[in-house]
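Appendix B, Record 12. Input sequence as logged:
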Amino acid sequence: MSRAHRQLLACWMTLILLAGVEFGCAAIRFDRSYRPMLLLPALTMAALAALMFMRVRDGIATVRVFAIAALFWLTILLDLGMMDPMTRAIYPVAG
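Logged structural output:
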């Protein structure tokens, strides 16, 4: 097995491990202040996929600009998706 294959295999195993951490932590009850910590594995997975599988480091400047723009939009979409669970409150109903 070549060095490139070993690097890709290590990256894939890291992605699988991070996905397991994310799914495992999603089942745990967290305080509201710790919920943004669930984004860390997701952002790490996105960075690993961009750097290792998409080879953004080796690309020309245009590739890097589009990758940065994609990460910008990913951040916006994650923030918008996170706003509902972060701001949701349970209001008691008189019954």
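The mean pLDDT is 86.
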